[in-house]
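Field log, afternoon session.

UNIT: design team B
ACTIVITY: writing a sequence onto a fixed backbone
BACKBONE:
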């Protein structure tokens, strides 16, 4: 569609907005998206397909495709179409707080009224919806699959997933991180070497895509601090509490990665859970959890 705008020589000034998140966040999210239908929310025919560990998934993906950043891939792809026209721009929008208002105020050019409405809504505490970004996990699905395959339970995969989830009621991210280490079993995390490599790649892409001063001439980074509406007013000044920059520093990114390296980048020792099934659960014909 975008190439046709140029091939037909129509007078369009096209802007393409790319969402951005750190490399390790993207691939753990894509891992969930790839396998989330394999157990808890799928038909029986899919249940037999075992979900790999996160570490194995990352290794296989890196060997097959490389753990590249999708924002970089998008820039490379669309630059082929637009490099000669000079009429198109690329915007990189880091995901984070006030995403809608930052998109309308800083990524979209000239959307003055939409920008002001979005900022007003963000400032209105009555319309603020607090959402904990808990992320998703396939730990429950992997345990359920192992229990079924080893014959320790004959309940459906979905039923087992629901029972496992009922062990904890997660109210915020901190509680989720605690539950992963305390409820099921010891965690199996990436090796120090893999952690170091993954962090290095994450920092590399973060630097190239959102921190580097040598980003391509037609690429603009939305930081959350530099948006200006058509009246010359900084979008940040429209907020009751001006937003902080949505671009993390390298130290902050490193600290966030290190927290994830002990939680969301880890897996549960599934074999331990299955071997100790009777101590973790009431007998399989009981409808209640311990």
């Amino acid at each position: 569609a975008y190439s046709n705008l140029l091939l037909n020589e129509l007078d369009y000034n096209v802007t393409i907005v790319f969402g951005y998140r750190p490399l390790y966040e993207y691939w753990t999210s894509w891992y969930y998206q790839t396998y989330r239908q394999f157990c808890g929310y799928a038909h029986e025919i899919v249940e037999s397909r075992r979900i790999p560990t996160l570490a194995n998934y990352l290794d296989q993906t890196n060997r097959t495709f490389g753990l590249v950043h999708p924002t970089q891939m998008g820039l490379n792809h669309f630059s082929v179409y637009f490099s000669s026209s000079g009429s198109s721009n690329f915007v990189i929008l880091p995901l984070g707080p006030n995403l809608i208002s930052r998109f309308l105020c800083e990524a979209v050019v000239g959307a003055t009224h939409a920008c002001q409405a979005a900022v007003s809504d963000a400032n209105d505490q009555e319309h603020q919806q607090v959402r904990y970004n808990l992320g998703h996990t396939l730990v429950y699905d992997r345990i359920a699959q192992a229990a079924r395959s080893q014959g320790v339970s004959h309940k459906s995969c979905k039923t087992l997933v629901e029972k496992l989830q009922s062990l904890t009621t997660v109210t915020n991210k901190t509680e989720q991180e605690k539950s992963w280490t305390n409820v099921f079993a010891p965690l199996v995390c990436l090796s120090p070497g893999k952690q170091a490599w993954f962090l290095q790649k994450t920092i590399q892409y973060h630097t190239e895509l959102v921190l580097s001063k040598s980003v391509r001439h037609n690429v603009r980074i939305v930081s959350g601090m530099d948006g200006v509406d058509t009246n010359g007013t900084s979008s940040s000044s429209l907020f009751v509490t001006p937003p902080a920059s949505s671009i993390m520093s390298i130290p902050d990114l490193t600290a966030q990665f290190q927290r994830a390296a002990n939680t969301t980048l880890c897996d549960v020792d599934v074999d331990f859970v299955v071997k100790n099934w009777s101590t973790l659960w009431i007998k399989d014909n009981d409808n209640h959890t311990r």
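LOG NOTE: The longest strand covers residues 15-20.
NEXT ACTIVITY: expression trials, pending approval
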